[in-house]
Amino acid sequence: MARRQRPAREEPGTGQQGGQQGGRRRPKAKPGSRRGSRAPVSAAVTASGRKVDAETRREAILDAALAVFAEHGYEAARLDDMAARAGVAKGTLYLYFKDKEALFEALVRGAVSPIMGRLGEAAAAPGMTVASVLELFFAMFQKEVLGTRRKLVLRLVISEGPRFPALAEFYYREVVSQGLKMMRNVARHGVATGELSSEALARFPQLIVAPLLLATIWDGLFSKIDPLDVPGLLRAHRELLLGFSARSAP
Amino acid sequence: MARRQRPAREEPGTGQQGGQQGGRRRPKAKPGSRRGSRAPVSAAVTASGRKVDAETRREAILDAALAVFAEHGYEAARLDDMAARAGVAKGTLYLYFKDKEALFEALVRGAVSPIMGRLGEAAAAPGMTVASVLELFFAMFQKEVLGTRRKLVLRLVISEGPRFPALAEFYYREVVSQGLKMMRNVARHGVATGELSSEALARFPQLIVAPLLLATIWDGLFSKIDPLDVPGLLRAHRELLLGFSARSAP
DNA sequence: GTTATATGACTGACTGGTCAGTCAGTCATC
DNA sequence: GATGACTGACTGACCAGTCAGTCATATAAC
After folding, report:
1. I want to staple A183 with a disulfide (CB 3.0 to 4.6 A). Which of A93, A205, B78, B130 is the partner?
2. What pTM does this model have?
3. Which of B51, B68, B97 is the last residue of a domain?
4. Residue whose C-alpha is closest to residue B115's, from B199, B212, B194, B46
5. What is the mean pLDDT of residues A211-227?
């Protein structure tokens, strides 16, 4: 009877193995034998004397959770896996997050916030041309999203968003609408200065980011079959947006 | 003890209710009391005399499966739901498909094939300009994908593809690589005739389809918050691709 | 310095609801 | 009477969430 056989799983306990501080084991302790089979996140002792401070542990859990959610999707992600990866017991997850959903949302929220601010400054700098903003924006996306595990978060939002309306709304509010507003302002500026010959981008700033989305999805689906030359793609994209030959380098 | 509480479910038996052909019910038939609580897909009797022919039933199952997979994602989709929607018992699903995964793959394969052929003819017609091919291609995508449940299939591929390498490869082979090849040929043609002033599209035909992808994802995530004017988006996109003012109408 | 007690972070076996897949049984049709 | 499409109760793996129990550390008392 073939049963809910899941795709390949990592073996448990793949976290950082290490300084098991030899708590004596009794032959058959009923429940909870401390440090039973798991390594602490770090052997370093914090200033307060605790083995690992709460923030570090929280990060470790979020880190592990991202890996597992990204690999299996929300529903198929097992909390046991996350716990094992984070080097804690499952119960510990519940000391830090109310439930699976809260953990998932915390993950997305945490990955999003730090980026948007920096983008804002860049786009608002005076004397910026459209070409230079696009250059900067695309470089930033490659470095901070495609080049990091944040791309996994973006993919999770795309995949799981339809089933988490609250998440989609949060993402729209914090990322999409803000990003589009910036891009729209840049485009309007470009039209005003004559750098852009069409109002298309001012009306649909989505056209600026569409290839970034494509690159993210391609990376997840086809990169093994046919890797995408993302820098080349984005250069070509800038070329089209700016209406031919815009081969500027910073 | 809060347990795997799933998101809102449709009540079972939402399929086409109808002609229960009054098979007599015994008070407590042990197993399988035929036509227990479910409506047949159709009351029409086929030429061969069977209540419903195999192909029709297969379609009904695929139809129901698409709805359930699309709503809940692969893992969270319940075969019981699909069966209820299709108006059959769960066991019947296994007469038509080996298992959940085979059903999922059949779904995607079935939705994909009919489209590609037509696109091919359109792009190969002699005397076609880039502008007219794009016009046609975008219209076709709006009508045949965004306008139908095929968009759900596309979204499923995007969402579940990373966990189904075989599916991603199939989709790449049958759709992506073929579509890009066509687009690349069209772009090369455009460069040769002078209709396109840049080789960007010939190098990265992905740039042509990126906004279609964006539209599909937007529709799934944000359409309730901020609906996207897809025809406008694609008009603006054509404008940019063709290097300004391309406001043609068919 | 040593021992006793308190604290709370952490553990992991366990519970109970869930659901993919099975198969003995039913019945319309041949 | 035989065939085979169809049924649906059932099995057993599965896993989110719980909580009684453990122990490192801190603090107090001697």
Report:
1. A205
2. 0.84
3. B97
4. B212
5. 98
